[in-house]
Structure formats: C-alpha cells, structure tokens
Write a sequence for this structure.
C-alpha cells in the first residue's frame, strides 16, 4: 500500500508553493498585525497563534520583491520550526497517494498539481533563511 501524503498548496504572487501538512500549525484569515520596528518591508508585523507571537512575512514580497497582490490567508508554520507566519493568496489542499506526483530537477523539488507545478518548501529551512535575512 502506498503512503498518503497531504500538502497545503498556496498561491504566492504568480507562483504556487506547497508545504507538507505536518509543517503547518494553522491557516487563518488575514488580520490586523502589530508592527515590528526596523523590520524589512516584507515583514508585515506580528500576531498571535496558539499563544505564541509569530512574525508575519509577505512571502511574495520576500521571494519576488513584489507584495502579494491578493492576500487571503496566513499560514502559520510549525511552531517547533520557528515563530513564523506567511501571508499568501489562495490556499488549497492536495492529497497524493503516490510519490509519482513529487518531482525533483535542477531548480529543486516540486509537486504536480492540476493548476501546474508547486515548488515544495521546507518550513525549518524557510524559517532559518528568513531569520538570517531579518538579521541583516
């Protein structure tokens, strides 16, 4: 029997990204945020998730330099990976029953979806990368 995998697929600007369900704590509506002094423009502020303060990053602005044109959701990453939420566009789920939907090429790993490929993100690595960028 094949292992069933579940992914959260997000639109981020003109692109699609995916996270394994196990790396997501919460998906919430966009809400007012508390400002973070001297933060980069792509760090929109901070909010609370399950009693923990998390920084909120506009993932489109962080990755592409352009703000998310249609912010709809906050995706809070696994709090064990770090205190980070991503502001993204639409969010859907994808269930795969086969590793055939996962691919790897010179650009990285990606998930095949009905809407096209979704680059596979890894929460812990993303948190570390963003933390380093915020420290600059």
């Amino acid at each position: 029997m094949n292992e069933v995998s579940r992914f959260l697929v997000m639109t981020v600007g003109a692109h699609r990204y995916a996270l394994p369900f196990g790396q997501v704590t919460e998906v919430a509506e966009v809400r007012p945020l508390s400002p973070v002094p001297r933060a980069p423009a792509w760090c929109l502020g901070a909010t609370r998730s399950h009693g923990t303060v998390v920084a909120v990053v506009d993932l489109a602005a962080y990755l592409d330099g352009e703000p998310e044109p249609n912010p709809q959701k906050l995706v809070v990453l696994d709090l064990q990976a770090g205190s980070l939420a991503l502001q993204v566009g639409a969010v859907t789920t994808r269930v795969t029953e086969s590793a055939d939907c996962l691919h790897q090429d010179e650009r990285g790993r990606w998930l095949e979806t009905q809407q096209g490929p979704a680059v596979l993100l890894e929460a812990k690595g993303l948190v570390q990368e963003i933390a380093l960028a915020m420290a600059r």
Remarks:
- The chain has two helices and eleven strands.
- Helices lie at 59-64, 123-135.
- The chain has a mean pLDDT of 92.
